Amino acid sequence: MTLRVTFAVAARVVAQLRRDHRTVAMLIVLPALLVSLMWWMFTDSPATFDRIGGPLLAVFPAIIMFIVTSVATLRERSSGTLSRLFTLPMAKLDFLLGYALAFAVIAVVQAAVVVSISLYALDLDIRGPAWQLGVVAVLDGVLGTALGLFASAFAATEFQAVQLMPAVMIPQLLLCGLFLPRDQLPGVLHAISDVLPLSYAVDAVVGVAAGNGFGQGAGVDALVVVAFVVAALALGAATLRRRTA
């Protein structure tokens, strides 16, 4: 791994994204629109929105980042771009970290937009510092990116990459505590939720929203999310294929 190569890959991906206005708009605007839609749905029940609004700040960015990065990585491989890149002195981890850094930049903007709209336009009630909520939202976007990069290794076409989203993300969505607190799940499902990264992403957001900031529990959940990101990138580097068979 070489930092110069990693940053070069990141700069290349950012340059590509700057030319793809639709993708950038989806990454930055769509999470805020979805949260706003949920606020509208529960406009007569603000307490319900306050309960689920925080977890949505973890769920929506992670899912959207997963879809975009898994498809984008597969497109690089199926078009032959990845094979050409690997003729250069570049390791697989350079490629994945470069992608992760590029989408982390998008995740920062994404988090700033969705958190600002949620707090100041939709009046989402949180007791913790807004900046900590923003940090967790960024981590959740990066988590979706890392999972997307890892999952793309198991798809042969872009259609298959999209199909991976239900298989990878929907079980996490159901068990992460969004619909039912995890401690109220049946024993087996609770045990499964304990090994799913989105569970800790939601726990971190809920912790900050409840006033339990990074020094009071949410920080541990955030560190677990970071560990999942690192693990996903490492596994992605180990399983990444240079071309689609």
Automatic annotation (TrEMBL):
It is found in: Cell membrane. Residues 14-243 form the ABC transmembrane type-2 domain. Coiled coil: none annotated. GO terms for cellular component: ATP-binding cassette (ABC) transporter complex. It holds the Pfam family ABC2_membrane. InterPro entries: ABC-2_transporter_component, ABC2_TM, ABC2_TM_bact-type, ABC_2_transport. One of its GO terms (biological process) is response to antibiotic. It is a multi-pass membrane protein. The chain crosses the membrane at residues 24-42, 54-74, 95-121, 133-154, 161-180, 222-240. GO terms for molecular function: ABC-type transporter activity. Belongs to the ABC-2 integral membrane protein family. This is Transport permease protein. It comes from Kribbella amoyensis.
